[in-house]
Design a protein that fits this description.
This protein is an alpha/beta fold. The chain has one domain: P-loop containing nucleotide triphosphate hydrolases (Rossmann fold), CATH 3.40.50.300. 38% of the residues lie in helices and 18% in strands. The chain is built from 7 helices and 9 strands, in the order βαβββαββαβαβααβα. A hairpin with a 2-residue loop joins strand 5 and strand 6. The longest helix has 16 residues.
């Protein structure tokens, strides 16, 4: 007499909203670029900003560059998930592409400053929050100087702000250190975090109105 085999357990992997944050100059843009290059299956949400385009940056790829008037209109129309003024410029995360990705079962990843992460935490507490950290403040200072985009006053302000931001690590689920000349280690850490989240017994339930 044959015995029926029990049906294998079906595991439904819920889509994730991954929030990457960290101090200015830590390498958030470079990290996302490497993830793209390596074809990680993520929906990369492009930040909207009013700041001027830097050399080599591409509109609608690195950022959505808009006028201050357009940015304020997006706020009024409820088109932004979160927004903040950082170092004199406005930055925001567009809401629609995040909702669309999650509705399609696709993991989405966004890049925000600490203010933005705190705001998203209130709206979507089940998102995965990752703080990208430099090995030291001295290393962060060196990276900012190499960018040649900050004046001495701005550099001092950014370093002071970074020291304050690092006091808010309790807001985040994970910390990843971005070592000098070894960004692929940070990329692998991010990938490992996402893999671990996919293996949770109780998956995160992302709800976004």
């Amino acid at each position: 007499m044959s015995r029926k085999r029990s049906s294998p357990l079906t595991v439904i992997k819920k889509p994730l909203l991954v929030v990457i944050s960290g101090p200015s100059g830590v390498g958030k843009d470079a990290l996302l670029s490497r993830l793209r290059e390596l074809k990680y299956p993520l929906e990369y949400i492009t930040t909207v900003t009013t700041r001027s385009r830097r050399a080599g940056e591409r509109d609608h790829i690195d950022y959505h560059f808009v006028t201050p008037e357009k940015f304020q209109e997006m706020i009024k129309q409820g088109e932004l998930l979160e927004w903040a003024k950082v170092y004199g410029n406005w930055y925001g995360v567009p809401k629609q592409p995040v909702k669309q990705a999650l509705n399609n079962g696709q993991d989405a990843i966004v890049k925000v400053d600490i203010q933005g992460a705190a705001t998203i935490k209130k709206i979507v507490p089940q998102a995965v929050f990752i703080f990208l950290m430099p090995p030291s403040i001295e290393e962060l200072s060196l990276r900012l100087k190499k960018r040649h985009t900050e004046k001495s006053f701005d550099l001092e302000l950014r370093l002071k702000t970074a020291a304050e931001e690092m006091k808010h690590l309790s807001l985040f689920d994970y910390v990843v250190v971005n070592q000098r000349d070894d960004i692929y280690r940070a990329v692998n850490d991010i990938a490992s975090i996402i893999t671990a989240e996919k293996c949770r017994v109780t998956p995160r339930e992302i709800a976004l109105e």
